[in-house]
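Bench log, entry 3. Co-assembly request; chain sequences pasted below exactly as received.
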Amino acid sequence: MTSASYTLSDTRTLLDRNFKHALRYPAMSLSSLLMPLLFLLLFRYAFGNELGAGIGGSYINYLTPGLLIMTGASSMVSTAVAVCTDMTEGIVDRLRTMSISRFALLAGHVAGNVIQTVAAMVILLGVAVGIGFRPHADALHWLGAIGVAALTAWALTWLALAMGLSAKAPEGASNLPMPVILLPFLSSAFVPAASMSPGLRQFAEYQPFTPITETLRGLLLGTPIGNQWIYALCWCVGLTVVGYVASRRLFDRRAEL
Amino acid sequence: MTTPSSAIAVRGLRKSFKNKLVLDGIDLDIKEGTVFSLLGPNGAGKTTAVRILSTLSKPDAGQAWIAGKELAREPDAVRAAIGVTGQSVAVDGLLTGLENLILVGKLHHLGKRESRQRATELLERFDLTEAAGKALATYSGGMRRKLDLAMTLVGKPRIIFLDEPTTGLDPRSRRTMWQIIHDLVSQDGVTIFLTTQYLEEADRLADRIAVLDQGRIVAEGTSAELKQLVPGGHVSLRFTDAAELDLAGSVLDIIGRDEDELTLQVPSDGGVRSLQSLLDRLSQANLEPAELTVHTPDLDDVFLALTDHPAPTPAASTTETGADR
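Structure output for the full assembly:
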C-alpha cells in the first residue's frame, strides 16, 4: 500500500528530477519567460506611448499585471512537452510497474511548473519595476496578488498537463497551448475591453483572462475590482477541475495501451 | 483453484484490442529461480503478455499469480516483487547514469545514502562506473540497455520481466547482456520471464521455452524437448564425383540428393553411434566422402515449423525458404 506520505515523498523525488531537467536544459523554461518579457519591452517602448495616451495614466502600470498572467499561459508549453515526453519515452512505464503512487508523476510536474512559473513571474516583475512599473499595494494586497498569480499558474498547469497527455508526440504537445497563450490579447491585458468592437468586447469580458487580469491589477494598483475576483476564482477552480479530471482520465487510458 | 506455488502462474489469459484477439487463452507455470522464455514472431502477443503480467495492462479474462499474489487483487504487492525492462529503454535521457539509478532508488524509498550505495554497486557490476557522471546522450545503445536493466535491479526484484532485452544490440553487447542475465539467475536466484524473437537467445538462456503464435502457446518445454518435436536431423555427405555419388546413393537410405553439389542427405540424430554405423557402411562399399556435416535440429526448425502460416504474406514466404534448409 502506498500511504499519503509515500505519495508526498515520491512527488518530491520527481519534483527534484524536473528541477534537474530545468537547470540542465534551461532553454525550455527560459522560453516561457521570453515571450512576456519581449512583449513587456515591445509594448513599453514601441507601442506604449500611443496606447498609454488612450488609456490615460502610466501604460507600464496598466500592462504589467496582464503580462504576469500571460507568463502563466506561456509556461504551459514546457509543461505539456515535458509530460508528453515522459509518456512517450519508457520512463512512465517504469514508474507504473513500481510500487509508487501513480499520482506522483503528475503531481511532480504540476508542482515543478507552478514553482517555475512563479519564479518567471518574479523575474518579469523585477524587469517591469526596473523600467517604470510602480505598484502601490500594501502587504495584504501583495499577498492577494501572489495568491491570484499562483492560482492562475496552478489552474493553467493542470490544463497544460491534460494537453500534454492528449498529444501523441512532444511536437504536437507544444502546439496545443497556443490558443490559450493568445487569449490574453483578446482580454483586458493590453487594452481595456471597453475599447474593443462590440463582438470582441463581449468575448473579452467573458473569457478567463479579463477577470483574472482585472483582479491582479486591482490588487497591485488599486483600480476597482468589483466582482471580477469572483469570476477569476471561478475560472481558476473550473480550469483546475477540468484539467485535473481530464489528466487523470487521459493518464489512465493512455497507460492502458 | 488454490494459489499456485510457482513464481508465475497464469490461467486462461485473454486479451483483445478492439476486435483483434492478441492473447487467446494462455496458461503458464514458471518455477522459481528459472529462466522462462516466451518465443514468438513479431506480433505474436509477447509484449502484451508482459504488459499484463507486469500490471501495465488489464486482461479481458483469466487469472495470474505473481510471487503468490493475485494480479487482479493485489497489483501493488505484485509491483513490489517484480522488475520490468520493457522494449523501449525506460531511462531519463536528461539525467546521468548515476542520477537515473538514484532516482529509482529514492522511488523505492531506499533513502539517500542507500540509494547512492546501491547505484554505485550496480554501476560497477554492469561496468558503467566510468560513464556514471556522463549525460545519457553519450551512452551507446548497449550501455543504455545495461543502465535500464540496472535500474530494474535497484529494488532487488525476485521476478524480472525482460521484453526483448537484446533486440537491436550488436553481437558483443548481446553477449554481455546474456552473461548478465545468466548471472542474475545463478548468483541472485531470481526468476526471469524473457521474451525474444531470437532462437539462439532462448536456447542459451532459458530453462523452459514456450512458443507463442497468434496469441496461443503452440509448444512448451525445454529446448531439447522442443527440438524433438521437429524431425530435421541429418548428415550431409559430399563426394568427389558422380560415380561415387551414385554408389553411395545405392547403399544408403537417403532423404535428399544434389547432383550439382555432389551431396547426399541421410537421416541421423547426430549421435556418435549412428555416425559410426554410417561410416561403417560407407567403408564396406569402399567409399570415402570428401566432406561430412552433421545437421542437428535447432530451435529455428522448431520455430519455423510451429509458426508457419499458409497466409500469403511476404513474411510467410521467408519462413518457407527457411524451412527448406
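The first strand of chain B starts at residue 8 and ends at 17. DSSP finds twelve helices and 14 strands in chain B.
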